[in-house]
Amino acid sequence: MSYKNFPMVPRVIFGRGSFNQLSEILAPKRLNINAPFIFLVDDVFKANSWLTSRIPLSYDDKIIYVSAAEEPKTSQVDSLVENIILNTKERPSGIIGIGGGTLLDLAKAVAIMLTNEGEAKDYQGWDLVKNEAVYHVGIPTISGTGAEVSRTTVLTGPDRKLGINSDYTPFDQVILDSELTKKVPTEQWFYTGMDCYIHCIESLEGTYLNTFSQSYGEMALELCKEVFLDEEGLKQSDSEEKLMMASWHGGMSIVYSQVGIAHAMSYGLSYLLGTKHGIGNCIVFDQLEEFYPEGVKLFKQMKEKHGIELPKGICSELSEADLNKMIDIAFDLAPLWENALGKNWQKIMTRDKLKELYLKM
Ligand code: NAD
Ligand code: ZN
After folding, report:
1. Distance of CA 57 from the midpoint of ligand 2 (Å)
2. What is the pLDDT of residues 200-245, one digit of tens each?
3. Are residues 161 and 198 in the same domain?
């Protein structure tokens, strides 16, 4: 048996207001005055001087606002990289992503593509990145995806939605300041938070489970239950801190295991319909009682408690060809199915069965 040797985020700062320390964190990492820091910031903060006025800009440092309306694409990474190369005197000292999973993934991918030749799509897969990325920092402003700790950056390319999974992908530095999450709208809070909850269930119920993953998964699950079910008596700021740590632990749990059916199926929805990760996972997970009975029961309680209505009938208009494409995308993620259902997963989850599930959504 050969065990995988995974990298982790080497530096993390945690605490409300820790965002104010960004300047002192970055200063020693500046290569020279011609090598700027580039801040990729969710454009939801464009008019938010509370956050943007605290971004420390010196010399040629730049803020690039990016919309998170759509999930990141390989072509978007390529054009950001081109724009940065054309507009900087030297290779940047660092890339800082400020936002949710979308911005964090973009920051990781841009940092990688600044030092690796070709196009982002060439690196979708496992361990294809050759050169160390530019120094990169992740600052989440919404909690749940675990993108702040993960070894992947999920991108939609011309042929598939697949991560750049590599030892160079994880951030060099993460700043966990839960205050930055205080204005997240309730529905989005729920969808992204449920991404974390679903990571826990899929990891803990999976056949790949081991003590490393279990210990992180159980911790994250407990935090999710406190935040989404027992929040009475919990201060808003405590709830935000707990969800931020749940996201971190949930991400750590899947580093050494895998996600499962909800993720495989939600990749299909995302590729074909553009359904975003958090809500897509919720739409799928809602239909998976057969596979995760306890997890889905609790999910439905949380949904009800927070008055969340999921869209219905999203696959009902799809053609046979579209359904088949969606099934292909989902089945392409073999490790997720194997984790969920074991080595003989193909006997349990047939194309017909998968189609039937999609048509329920
Ligand atoms: P997101 O980044 O797509 O943002 C969702 C919405 O919330 C956007 O409208 C955004 O503008 C808004 N938002 C973010 N912070 C806010 C704030 N503080 N106040 C108000 N609005 C705010 O959401 P997400 O769910 O965090 O990320 C989804 C993405 O993460 C997907 O692209 C998915 O593929 C990716 N993902 C990556 C990993 C990984 O390990 N790399 C894991 C899971 C998901
Ligand atoms: Zn996820």
Report:
1. 33
2. 999 999 999 999 999 999 999 999 999 999 888 899 999 999 999 9
3. no
The CB of 44 under 6 Å from ligand 1? The reply is yes
Residues 195 and 156 in one domain: no
For residue 269, what are the domain limits?
186-359
Residues 193 and 231 in one domain: yes
To the question of pTM greater than 0.90 for the whole model, the response is: yes
Please report which helix (H) or strand (E) contains residue 64, including its range: strand 62-66
Specify the ligand 1 atom closest to the Cα of 108. Answer: 41
Q: Are residues 99 and 197 in the same domain?
A: no
Count the Cβ atoms, other than its own, within 10 Å of residue 350: 11
> What sign does the dihedral 146-154-132-86 (CA atoms) show?
negative
Q: How far is CA 154 from CA 71, 166, 323, in A?
A: 9, 12, 22
Question: What's the pLDDT score for residue 215?
Answer: 98
Asked if residue 333 and residue 200 are part of one domain, the reply reads: yes
Q: Give yes or no for a contact between 282 and 228, defined as CB atoms under 8 angstroms apart.
A: no
Question: pLDDT of 104-150, one tens digit each?
Answer: 999 999 999 999 999 999 999 999 999 999 999 999 999 999 999 99
Domain annotation covers residue 1: no
206: closest CA among 347, 345, 361? 345
Q: What's the number of domains the chain is made of? A: 2
Residue 175 and residue 25 in contact, taking contact as beta carbons nearer than 8 Å: yes
- 27 CA to centre of ligand 2 in angstroms: 33
Domain CATH for 321: 1.20.1090.10
Return phi, psi of residue 177, to 5°: -120, 100
Amino acid at 333: L
With respect to residue 3, please indicate whether it lies within any of the assigned structural domains: no
Per the DSSP assignment, residues forming a β-bridge with 139 are 98
* DSSP letter string, 136-185: EEEEESS-SS-TTT-S--EEE-SS-EEEEE-TT-S-SEEEE-GGGGTT--
Quote the tokens at residue 341.
């259902």
Which atom of ligand 1 is nearest to 192's Cα? Answer: 25
